[in-house]
Specification:
The complex is a heterodimer of chains A (291) and B (309).
Chain A (H helix, E strand, L loop, with lengths): L1 H30 L6 H18 L4 H29 L8 H24 L13 E4 L2 E4 H23 L1 H11 L1 H6 L4 H26 L7 H15 L4 H22 L6 H13 L9
Antiparallel strand pairs in A: 1-2
Chain B lengths: L1 H6 L1 H15 L6 H26 L7 H19 L3 H25 L2 H21 L1 H4 L5 E2 L8 H24 L1 H11 L1 H6 L4 H27 L1 E2 L1 H4 L2 H14 L5 H16 L6 H16 L3 H12 L1
Antiparallel strand pairs in B: 1-2
Chain lengths: 291, 309
């Protein structure tokens, strides 16, 4: 029974990790930006969903929609007030842009975190799930919400796959991740591509944040851990490789669930960290990385 | 060399600040002295970080890995075996150097974000182990060390100031020496530096050891000043972030700027205390604004002006 329980819980957690990390890795692949305010954007979306649901009389669908919308707004704000000015700044040498983006988004993330803590306290917040109820799955009592989380995550990832591989703007996105200069030479405006990628990123991070709030609950104190887990999943899978991140998300999700159930919840993150050290030493480009 | 030192505006500014700093216990309260003492140790953290980042070009997201190793090693030895303080600090510094070598190994192989993540992981692992082995380390509550540096506020203050000035002088001298130049070159283009016949690996390893030595010593001294070692003061990622912000704020690749940034950051955090939870928000916003509009930082901008004139 315990085995099945781990299988089910691990799957739901991993799907959520996968969704959270996909946007992060897509953005790195296309625009070379590692966004350290990732966790803050997720939590901002989740808390917004919580607030909206409160105002709108507890309708979870409208609340969730509002949360995702807010996540998108915060993502745009991150791009236009922090990332783009740094990328365009003449005072910052080109080879140092990366570290400035890292520091800048880190500071921005702290600002969002503190603002949330100030206005809505750092208490954990749970959003009412879209699908209430419990179902008996081969003897394991599973909340329907857990299944809905996994389904929504995979539906969104599927839609993203369609967008990238089957639409014109998606193909430009893909091309930009392979060779930005080539895309510019073909007459595509690179800044439009960046705006598109931030839009996708904002929506993905927003959905991941709201789902997390329904599943486990969020707190502004957990921002750093969220960013760190997305960062490690992405490095484990290979920076910029979406399929690598998906696999890594499941490795991380299951390892954490196993440790939490079989050893102790206190040791939950340690095996993953050790694995990460090992992988980076032996295969720095990650599981499916190109570089 | 000496003549240039005399005529340089920076030397005179530093000298005036030093005299003002050293005589400060005569006219301010113990409370302010306490804050400044803490900020001086922070200044050493930031300067040690700047040597790695500004010169060796290594983005170390985990300065608290080195600081925490030094602090906890010294604290545990002092609490369990009662070694004299100087021996504990030395042991802490050696342990930090060991940690620095451990960090340097991946740094020689990995680039940018990968190395950054490794340093972050190092901090998280250290934090986890401290919490798990709570019997020895005191866990989340913290470790009380029996010895303290001095009872007197002014003595503590003067000691911290002296330590910061000495560390600053050594690190600054090192950064302006040929070694500093080679480090800077290998940080910007490792291949070309190696092609010019410099041993990049050796220099980077040395930079890690020096940075670790000062981080570890400062960490160990700080817990003997505070009387306790806890995850929240010497290991937490938030502390590391503050060190990084301080160095970038003051001006990267200046060493002295890092100390100025650290003192400013601690004082600003204290001055904004009435704002309550918003104080961190305001400090981060100011730091972000500096990064966006004056990417060279306080001292960096000052030096640029000086160089042009």
């Amino acid at each position: 029974m315990l085995g099945l329980q781990i299988l089910i819980d691990g799957f739901a957690i991993s799907s959520l990790y996968a969704l959270g990390a996909t946007g992060f890795t897509l953005m790195f692949g296309v625009s070379g930006v590692l966004n350290l305010s990732h966790g803050s954007i997720m939590v901002a979306a989740a808390v917004a969903a919580w607030v909206f649901a409160g105002y709108l009389g507890g309708n979870p669908y409208l609340g969730a929609l509002g949360g995702v919308g807010f996540g998108l707004i915060v993502a745009y704000a991150t791009y236009f007030t922090v990332v783009r000015p740094i990328q365009r700044s003449k005072a910052i040498p080109k080879e140092e842009t990366e570290i400035f983006v890292l520091t800048g988004t880190l500071l921005w993330g702290i600002m969002i975190q503190e603002a949330i803590a100030y206005f809505y306290t750092s208490n954990p917040k749970t959003v009412r799930p879209l699908v209430p109820g419990v179902v008996d799955l081969l003897g394991v009592r599973t909340p329907l919400n857990e299944i809905a989380t996994a389904v929504i995550c995979w539906a969104v990832i599927g839609l993203l796959w369609l967008l990238v591989n089957r639409t014109r703007s998606g193909k430009v996105l893909l091309a930009a991740s392979i060779n930005p200069r080539g895309v510019t030479l073909l007459g595509f405006e690179l800044s439009n591509v960046y705006i598109l990628v931030w839009t996708i990123y904002g929506i993905l991070a927003g959905i991941a944040g709201v789902l997390l709030a329904m599943f486990l609950g969020v707190s502004s104190d957990g921002v750093g851990a969220l960013t760190a887990s997305a960062f490690s999943i992405v490095v484990l899978g290979g920076l910029g490789s979406v399929s690598g991140s998906l696999i890594a998300a499941y490795v991380v999700g299951y390892m954490e669930t196993f440790t939490a159930y079989l050893i102790s919840p206190a040791y939950r993150t340690i095996p993953v960290l050790l694995l990460l050290v090992l992988v980076v030493y032996i295969r720095p480009q990650g599981l499916l990385g190109r570089r | 060399m000496f003549g240039r030192l005399i005529s340089s505006r920076l030397t005179w500014i530093a000298l005036v600040l030093l005299v003002v700093g050293a005589t400060l216990p005569l006219y301010v309260t113990g409370y302010i002295l306490g804050i400044l003492t803490l900020s001086y140790y922070f200044g050493v953290f930031a300067m040690a970080w700047d040597l790695l980042f500004g010169f060796a070009g290594e983005v170390n997201f985990g300065p608290t890995f080195l600081i925490g190793l030094g602090a906890y090693t010294a604290g545990i030895i002092n609490a369990n075996w009662g070694w004299p303080m100087a021996a504990c600090v030395l042991a802490g510094a050696l342990m930090a150097i060991l940690g620095g070598v451990l960090l340097a190994l991946p740094a020689l192989k990995l680039r940018g974000p990968y190395f950054g993540l490794m340093t972050l992981v190092a901090v998280l692992l250290l934090q986890n182990f401290i919490v798990i082995f709570a019997g020895v380390t005191g866990g989340e509550i913290g470790l009380t060390v029996p010895d303290v540096l001095f009872i007197d506020d002014s003595a503590n203050y003067e000691f911290a100031l002296g330590f910061m000035v000495l560390s600053g002088a050594i690190l600054f001298g090192l950064s302006r020496s040929p070694i500093g130049l080679i480090l800077q070159a290998s940080g910007q283009d490792a291949v070309e530096t190696a092609a010019l016949g410099f041993n990049v690996a050796k220099h980077k390893l040395a930079a890690f050891c020096v940075s670790a030595f000062f981080s570890g010593t400062a960490g160990a001294l700080m817990i003997f000043y505070l009387g306790t070692a806890s995850v929240g003061t010497v290991v937490d990622i938030a502390v590391g972030v503050q060190v990084i912000i301080a160095a970038v704020l003051g001006g990267r690749r200046t060493i002295l700027g890092a100390a100025v940034g650290a003192i400013f950051l601690i004082l600003a955090g204290e001055a904004l205390r009435p704002l309550g939870e918003l104080s961190t928000f305001v400090v981060s916003a100011v730091a972000l604004a500096v990064i966006l509009f004056f990417p060279n930082g306080f001292i960096g901008s000052l030096l640029r002006v000086g160089e042009k004139s």
